[in-house]
Write a structure and sequence with these properties.
The protein is of the alpha+beta class and 123 residues long. The chain is 16% helix and 22% strand. It binds FE2/S2 (inorganic) cluster (FES). The site of FE2/S2 (inorganic) cluster has 13 residues, from loops.
Length: 123
């Protein structure tokens, strides 16, 4: 089973195939997901220290590009944990002053994932 190491919290073992935003939350970290995991809000943004996936959904690409965040962060709601990862959640409920993280993201990636290799995407 993959190990997700969360900066400031340490390692946590999760099930392979889980969305990263759900994995981080299941490890006890109050990551934001204000749009419910639809690649619309960017509050689930993480910085990768290691294990960044090559694949990216079209929805993640378009959102990061329009927000000027492409190459800076990734959206944890658009990533499936398929390997060990070391990440840093950048918008946490307790730091942002929100009353809650947002609607619970579904188990599977939404909107329906169209995958690209991020090296082939225009930056
Ligand atoms: S972009 Fe809103 S939860 Fe990921």
């Amino acid at each position: 089973m993959p190990v997700v190491t969360i900066e400031g919290y340490g390692p946590c073992t999760v099930e392979a195939g889980v969305r990263l935003v759900r994995a981080i939350e299941s490890c006890g970290v109050d990551i934001g997901h204000r749009c419910g995991g639809f690649a619309r809000c960017t509050t689930c943004r993480v910085r990768f220290h290691d294990g960044e996936p090559e694949k990216m959904t079209r929805a993640e690409y378009e959102k990061l590009k329009s927000a000027g965040l492409l190459g800076e962060v990734r959206l944890a709601c658009q990533i499936v944990v398929d390997r060990d990862m070391h990440v840093e959640p950048l918008m946490r409920v307790s730091e942002m002053g929100w009353s809650d993280p947002g609607p619970e993201p579904a188990p599977g990636v939404e909107p329906e994932a169209v995958w690209f290799d991020r090296d082939t995407l225009e930056t």
